[in-house]
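User: I'm preparing a small set of examples for a lab meeting where we compare how different chains pack in three dimensions. I only have the primary sequence for this one, and I'd like the structure in token form so I can line it up with the others. Please keep the answer compact; I'll paste it straight into my notes.
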Amino acid sequence: MLRTNHIFLSYLEALYIQQGPKDDIVLKTFSKGEKILIQGQTLPKVMLIKEGIAKCYFSEENGKEYIVEFLGSGEILGEVEVIKNTTCLCSVEAVSEVAVYAVSLPYFKSLIQNDLRLNHVLMFLQNVLSTLPAELPISSCIR
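Assistant: Understood. Below is the structure token output for the 143-residue chain.
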């Protein structure tokens, strides 16, 4: 199943246009096979897929990889890591050429604090995640 979220994509596109010459949100592209996020590494930016398809997966200590899901337009990457203040919980790789809106971490954190629409969506996600067992390998890819 391919997840998409066009409402969130429209929201972030509007912010991208409104920002003017700032670099809080930049458009970035990834080639097929390129890693967007790497499990266990520091989150570089929160990203929202503008177009393309990416796979979200996690690797076990024994080296086995498990695909969690495929992500499309409007899907956000890294919000759980920001909320939980942790490294990347899964890896995300471009299956096709992928364009993302890359949001700086300070700007994303300010949106969480100041933008009620975003805050409500993320607080709902945090409440859902807090009900999951701690040993479950949750990631920003699991919805």
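A couple of notes for your slides: The domain at 2-130 is CATH 2.60.120.10 (Jelly Rolls). The mean pLDDT is 85.

User: Perfect, thanks.
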